[in-house]
Amino acid sequence: MSLTKKQKKEIFYTMLLSRRLDERAWILHRQGKIAFHISGIGQEAAQVGAAFALRRGHDWVTPYYRDLALMVALDYAPLDFMLALMGKRDESTSGARQMPSHFSSRAMNAVSHSAPVATQTSHASGIALAIKMKKEDKVVLTSLGEGSTSQGEWYEAVNWAAIHQLPVIFLVENNMYAISVPADQQMAVPTAADKACGLGLDGRSVDGTDAFAVYDVIHEVAEKARSGGGPSLIEARMYRITPHSSDDDDRSYRSREEVAEGKKKDPIVVVQRQVLEQGVLTEAEIEKMESKIKTIIDQAVEEATQAAYPEALEAAYPVYAEEVRRD
Ligand SMILES: Cc1ncc(C[n+]2csc(CCOP(=O)(O)OP(=O)(O)O)c2C)c(N)n1
Ligand SMILES: [Mg+2]
User: Fold this and answer.
1) Averaged over 260-287, what is the pLDDT?
2) Which of 47, 243, 259, 304 has the fewest Cβ atoms surrounding its Cβ within 10 A?
């Protein structure tokens, strides 16, 4: 199913909103206003392309910490992100007890991941098994970095999904690094998709800076999974433009020339060029989007700054209870 102009516009808008939110998080960190940020800059095209290929709110996602753009595509609000970054009480995922960027939402069928990388992939296979047993027409999309495909837990999750033909998509966001370790030190095969043949599932590699290409492939494998065709492993290739996190200095392990080269494939630039060339948006419309986004983010920062912190006692409250006593 090909994308309409309206959908392409929405995809670009979502990518841009996520990028500007992410950039603001870096600024807030450098201003000493938040403690930590882990960035999705450079990965927006893959995430938004994938999210748009799902039936959002119907299908399930078990994302990872770089998936801000994926979550924004599922309707994660700028204010919620800012509340989470600032550790404010009304932060939507856990009342500020989970780290920021450990996204979750009941309404979005998004399940929070744990700190050990790749654990969300076995959660995904478990959810997919439940879907199969209940004969529902849902799929699960789980995402992880290429470094995380070295984890035993990931092999178990993929193996299980392949054996039982579960409706799950493993989206590997290959940004070429696991903190300081380059991808060729994580795997002896050229792409993470090559790992699929040893596990018995469909494996493909796609340009992760091209949101529309990612949409096409995820849409195809999602429909296949929905109709009983089993799991798929999709590698989206991109470059991690920022350091690993706000606490990392990447100058110690990669050259500035390499980063400058990587930035040439910035997905915002790639998709902006596409939407302009295809007549989906004009320069003036993009400028209007930018100013709308700036207003939204300024308001979210202001509101989150004014919002209350949790009481110390609230650390002992249950995280996922429907109602908590605040007295
Ligand atoms: C089991 C485990 N080992 C190590 C870590 C520390 N750690 C956090 S993120 C990360 C890098 C993961 O790299 P990758 O999977 O490529 O994802 P990326 O951060 O590049 O998106 C590591 C090693 C961890 N969280 N869990
Ligand atoms: Mg990586």
Assistant:
1) 98
2) 259
The residue whose C-alpha atom lies closest to atom 17 belonging to ligand 1 is 145
Mutation to probe ligand 1, out of 114, 142, 175, 179 (largest number of atoms < 8 A from CB): 179
Flag whether 83 is in a domain. Answer: no
Work out the burial of residue 145: count CB atoms within 10 Å of its CB; fewer than 13 is exposed, 13-18 middle, 19 or more buried.
buried
Dist. CA 145 → ligand 1 center (Å): 7
Q: How far away, in angstroms, is 141 Cα from ligand 2 center?
A: 18
Domain for residue 118, yes or no?
yes
Measured in Å, residue 28 CA sits from the centre of ligand 1 at 24
Beta bridge partners of 143: 171
Q: Over the stretch 180-199, which tens digit does the pLDDT of each residue have?
A: 999 999 999 999 999 999 99
Q: What CATH number did the domain enclosing 120 receive?
A: 3.40.50.970
Q: What separation in angstroms does the CA of 130 have from each of 12, 74, 153, 223?
A: 34, 22, 19, 18
Give the count of beta carbons closer than 10 Å to the beta carbon of residue 165. 16
Answer yes or no: is 246 within a domain: yes
Total tally of structural domains belonging to the chain: 1
With a Cβ cut-off of 6 Å, ligand 1 is lined by 66, 115-117, 144-148, 173, 175, 177-179, 240, 244
The pLDDT of residue 327 is above 80? no
Identify the domain containing residue 54 by its residue range: 5-77+92-287
> Is the dihedral angle over the CA atoms 121, 127, 133, 137 positive or is it negative?
negative
Judge whether 324 lies within some domain: no
pLDDT at 324 over 80: no
Instruction: Write down the pLDDT at residue 318.
Output: 75
- pLDDT tens for 124-146 read 999 999 999 999 999 999 999 99
